């Protein structure tokens, strides 16, 4: 099992999760985070830290696409280990549906 970030993170990008990760397996894109599924040790400490409920175990239904999404971008984006402010406007974006198609950016974030 591994944990993955889903589209609930897009345009919110809370980073509470990265501070509690014991193996630094989070990677930062311009407007979202991902978890490298091969680096995640399945400890689960990140899941309850996410205010947007964007972190899910891969054992839930229909998570295969998110495992591959997280794998792809974790190999392209820089690692992030420190908490940062969420994105501007995150309050309005939190909980919106369809954010992957509407807002996702492939551009990398700043990382640490």
UniProtKB/TrEMBL annotation:
The keyword Nucleus does not apply. PROSITE patterns: 4FE4S_FER_1, 4FE4S_FER_2. Residues 1-30, 31-60 form the 4Fe-4S ferredoxin-type domain. InterPro entries: 4Fe4S_Fe-S-bd, 4Fe4S_Fe_S_CS, 7Fe_ferredoxin, Fd_C, FdxA, RnfB_subfamily. Keywords: 3Fe-4S, 4Fe-4S, Electron transport, Iron, Iron-sulfur, Metal-binding, Repeat, Transport. This is Ferredoxin. Ferredoxins are iron-sulfur proteins that transfer electrons in a wide variety of metabolic reactions. Its cofactor is [4Fe-4S] cluster; [3Fe-4S] cluster. The keyword Iron-sulfur applies. It holds the Pfam family Fer4.
């Amino acid at each position: 099992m591994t944990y993955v970030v889903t589209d609930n993170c897009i345009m919110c990008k809370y980073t509470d999760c990265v501070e509690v990760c014991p193996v630094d397996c989070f990677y930062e894109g311009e407007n979202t985070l991902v978890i490298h599924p091969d680096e995640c040790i399945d400890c689960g400490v990140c899941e309850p830290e996410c205010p947007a409920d964007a972190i899910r175990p891969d054992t839930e239904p229909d998570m295969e696409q998110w495992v591959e999404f997280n794998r792809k971008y974790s190999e392209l984006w820089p690692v992030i280990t420190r908490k940062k402010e969420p994105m501007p406007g995150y309050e309005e974006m939190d909980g919106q549906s369809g954010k992957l198609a509407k807002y996702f950016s492939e551009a990398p974030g700043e990382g640490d």
